[in-house]
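ok here's Small, acid-soluble spore protein H, seq below lol
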Amino acid sequence: MDSRRVKQILSSSADIDVTYNGVSVWIDELHQDEKMATVHLRGPLEERTIVEIGELKEE
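and the structure came out like this:
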């Protein structure tokens, strides 16, 4: 995924399915370098992880 698409997803009110390593996640924040993002798993656990946006996939 590229930074332009991450920004679109963050500004959208739609429920867009994004995965990281095959697991469904929410994107919380795009970092200033526009190469990393903070995400968390969908569901009750809200453990946040910083990942490379190139590893995010839109399903």
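fwiw The chain is about 15% helix and 40% strand. kinda neat tbh
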